[in-house]
Amino acid sequence: MVLLSVSGSAGSHVEVIQTETGYQLLYNGEPYFVKGAGGTVEMDVLKNYGGNSIRTWGVMDNTDEILDEALRHGLTVTFGIWMGQERQGFDYSNKGAIEAQVEYFRSIVRKYKDHPAILVWGVGNEVDLDYTNFDVWMYLEELCKMIKEEDPNHPTMTVTAGLDVAEVKLIQKFVPSVDILGVNTYGDISYLPEAMRSYGWTKPYMVTEWGPYGWWEVERTNWGASIEQTSTSKAETYDVSMKAILSDPQNCLGSYVFLWGQKQEHTSTWFGLFTEDGQETGAMDVLCKAWTGELPENTAPRMTVFSLDGKSAYDNITVKSGQSMIGNARVMDDQDDTIVYTWQVIPESTDKKTGGDAERAPKPVKGVFSRDSKLKDSVSFVVQEPGQYRLFLFASDGKGKVATGNIPFKVVE
Hints:
The chain has 8 helices and 18 strands. By secondary structure, the protein is an alpha/beta fold. The chain folds into 2 domains: 14-292, Glycosidases (TIM Barrel, Alpha-Beta Barrel); 302-412, Sandwich (Immunoglobulin-like). A hairpin with a 4-residue loop joins strand 1 (14-18) and strand 2. Helix 3 (95-112) runs parallel beside helix 4 and helix 7 (231-246) runs parallel beside helix 8.
C-alpha cells in the first residue's frame, strides 16, 4: 500500500515508467494502480470500498479543501485543468485568450504542484467534443509543455470523448508532452484495449470516465426518450466494464468511475452511483468487490421485475389522458431487509445538454397516485396533462442501499 504524506508540505513524486511488458505508474517510487472515482463527495466511502483516487475537472472555490480532504483519507487526485471548449464558445484562433488561459493555468500549477495528494494533471476534458478547429491540439501541447516546465514531478494527461484513430494520430503528432491518454468511454469500453493497440497509441492510458450505457448509446422510444437501465442492469454493466479495465495491466494505469455522486443528466439517476438523498446503488457493490476482493456487508436490493401496465420501457407505452395506469415491481434483497418503495411520476426533461453540462431537473408531478399506494410494490396512478413522462421507482432497504428504475411513457389527448 502506498501511504500519502500527512504533513501537507512535502509534494509527491509521480512518474510513468516503461517496463518490459508495458507501462507502470509510480507514486513516490511505489507501483500505483488507480482505483478511482470522478467526483469529490463521500471520500470516506470511497476509501472504505477500496478506492484510492479522485478526479476533478477544474478549479473550484473549495479546491484547497478538496485536496486536503483527499489527503486525510489517503486518496490521490487527478487535478483537472478545464481548457476552454469550442462548443462552449472558446475560440482557439484568439491568441490573446489562449495566452491568458496559459498564464492562469501556470499560476494554478505553481499554487498546487507541491500538494502531496496530487497524482496527475488532467489537462482538458473532451475538448474534441463537437470541435472543428484542430488548433486545439497545438494549444494542448503548449499547456502540457508549460506544466512540465513548472512541475516535473507529476505526469500530464488529456482526456478525450471516446476514442478514434484520427485523434490518436493528432495527439501523437501535435502533443508530445502529454504522458497519458485518458478516455471517457461507456458502451464501447470492452473494445478499448484492442482499439488502443490497433490505433497505434504507444503510451499508457487510463479510463477516465466509465459506467452505465450512456443516453446517446441506448434505444429510444418512438418519441425520442432514451431508455435507461435499471440500477440492477447497470451493476451488471459495471462488472463487465471493470473486467475490461483489468484486462490490460500492461498499458492501462487504472480508471475513474463516473459519477461518484449524483447529478441530473437526462434523468436524476443516469450516471450517479448515489441517489439525490445519498443512497448507494448496486454498482457500488461491484466496485467494492473489484477493489477489495469482497462484497460490502450490506448489498443493494436488486430489481428483477419492473413494468408499467404489464409492459417494459421498450414498448413505447402511450395512454390516454386520465387513463389509470399500474406500475409493478419485484425487488430482491440478499439480507432480507424490508423494502420501502417510493414511486414518482416526473415529466421528461426539457433541458437536455451534451458533454455533461449542467441541466435543470424537472419536478415530480403531484397528486397522481392513489391514496396509500406509494409504499407498495404495485402502484396505480392517473396523469391528466398530455405530455412525456417517466415512472420512477426507488426501492430502498432502509440501510442506505437502493434499487432504481424508470419507464418512459406518453400521455395523449
